[in-house]
Amino acid sequence: MDILPIHTPPDFNPLDLLKPLADVLAGEGPVVAPYATNEPPANLLTTLSDTSGNGSGPHTGQGPEAMAPDTAVVVSTSGSTGQPKQTMLTIDSLAASSMATAMKLKGEGQWLCTLPVHHIAGLQVLIRSLYAGTKPIVMDPASGFDTEAFTSAAQEMTDHHRYVSLVPTQLHRLLNSPDPNTMSVLRRFNAILLGGGPSNPDLLGTAASEGLKIFTTYGMSETCGGCVYNGKPLPGVQIKLDDGRIHLGGEVVASGYLNQPELNTQHFVDDGETRWYVTDDLGEFDDNGALRVTGRIDDVVISGGLKISAASVRRAIESVEGVHSAFVTGLESVEWGHVLAAAVVGAPESRQTLADAVRRDVAAEAVPKVVKFVPELPMLATGKPDRQQLIRLLEQAFRDGSAG
Fold first, then answer.
1. Strand pairing of 31-35 and 232-233?
2. Which of 247, 263, 285 is the last residue of a domain?
3. Do 370 and 394 meet the contact criterion of CB atoms below 8 Å apart?
4. For 257-276, what is each residue's pLDDT tens digit?
5. Distances (CA, A) of 39 to 6, 8, 35, 164, 234
6. Distance separating alpha carbons of residues 100 and 121, to the nearest angstrom
7. What is the pTM of this model?
8. What is the pLDDT of residue 58?
9. Residues 390, 352: one domain?
10. Which domain holds residue 305?
């Protein structure tokens, strides 16, 4: 099976991906494998006969058994919790995802690309545009994301139906833009998909008060991106909980990971009727049947023999007035086993205010022993917090006692 590795550095023009994507979706071109690193990811390199990583042309894979039949795209996961994995998405799964999205949004239309196209959220903007037969608008690749570039790009849109995918950090910046044209173009979107991580309730409240049509999304590379909108599954998508662990099922589920059979066995299950992806997330259904993600399997921190959910501590901290966002994790401690540590963006009334909120909403034992105020959370290109960098930052603060 031929593979076309495509290097997508920061100045890459996303429109250059349209032709190879159109070819493979029509069954007439090589598998598209975008990547942002200096050379293709290791799992992809082992499948290429030419491992030079120059991305200059298609390559014939060694060991075709590693590549699932009908694969159209190999896309890397965000790597927010460790080593990125290369996910195989088929023509059928991508088509099912695009159709379900159009049904949920009540129509196809023109998309604005604001996210990296080597990850699923940005790549899906191009794929949905191809299925809709519309020309996507992209921000100037050289400018990165800023409110001026976004506003300028949005003003170029001409279709009656307009859509965009954002991450919370981007929406926060846009809502605080001094340019009145920014809010004007935001209101013009028929839907703003907001994903990549949890959204602060204050952020969603501000967006709603401005009349913006926000759809919070939940999904991942393994489900062709967001497949749960505002807590409800897209048409054709199923959700089930197994001891609180979220399973997502349907045609949108990937074929698996490239060259990682053990992980495939752990995360992909075919019960004869439905193909399921077993996530690492925990969730629950509210009274209206909407899914709420409560944390991760590895989110539970055992401190002093007590089990504490880092996600519940984060939500308590983010409920404090003046706090924009937070990251909470556990750090190894000789005395406690682990201690709770938090990186906090914002200016609460005091550290005591944070402690009081955690004590009230979670438990006294859940109050973080390490609190580090930062101007912003370091993010991956996908908009997800860079967990590895944040953990290193908090570990250093814990070691030298500089938290504060």
1. unpaired
2. 285
3. yes
4. 998 999 999 999 999 899 99
5. 10, 10, 8, 29, 35
6. 15
7. 0.81
8. 59
9. yes
10. 297-400
Distance between CA atoms of 194 and 143, rounded to whole angstroms?
21
Q: Which two tokens stand for residue 68?
A: 């699932």
User: Average pLDDT of 192-200?
Assistant: 88
At residue 322, φ and ψ (nearest 5 deg) are: 95, -15
Residue 67 lies inside a defined structural domain of this protein:
yes
Adjacent-strand bridge partners of 6? 34
Q: Which amino acid is at 25?
A: L
Query: pLDDT tens digit string along 163-191?
Result: 999 988 899 999 999 999 999 999 999 99
For residue 266, the tally of other CB atoms under 10 A from its CB is 12
DSSP assignment, residue 320? S
Pairing relation of β-strands 191-194 and 162-166?
Answer: parallel
Q: Indicate the residue among 259, 285, 311 that finishes a domain.
A: 285
Residue 50 binned pLDDT confidence (cut-offs 50, 70, 90): very low
Question: Are both 33 and 75 inside the same structural domain?
Answer: yes
**Distance in angstroms (rounded) separating the CA atoms of residues 45 and 29:** 19
Burial of 207 (0-12, 13-18, 19+ CB in 10 A): buried
Sheet holding 59-60, edge to edge: 59-60, 2-7, 31-35, 71-76, 86-90, 256-257
Encoded amino acid at 283, one letter: G
Q: Residue 185's closest CA among 152, 209, 145, 136?
A: 152
Residue 44 · residue 71 · CB < 8 Å: no
Which residue, 95, 86, 96, 75, is CA-closest to 32?
75
Alpha-carbon gap, residue 328 to 372, rounded angstroms:
10
Q: Write down the residue that tokens 């880092």 correspond to.
A: 310
Has residue 337 got a pLDDT over 70? yes
Q: How far apart are CA 258 and CA 237, in angstroms?
A: 23
Consecutive H or E run containing 55: none
The SS3 of residue 295 is strand
Of 101-115, 160-174, 205-219, 288-302, minimum mean pLDDT range: 288-302
Q: How many residues does the chain have?
A: 404
Q: Are 125 and 136 in contact (CB under 8 A)?
A: yes
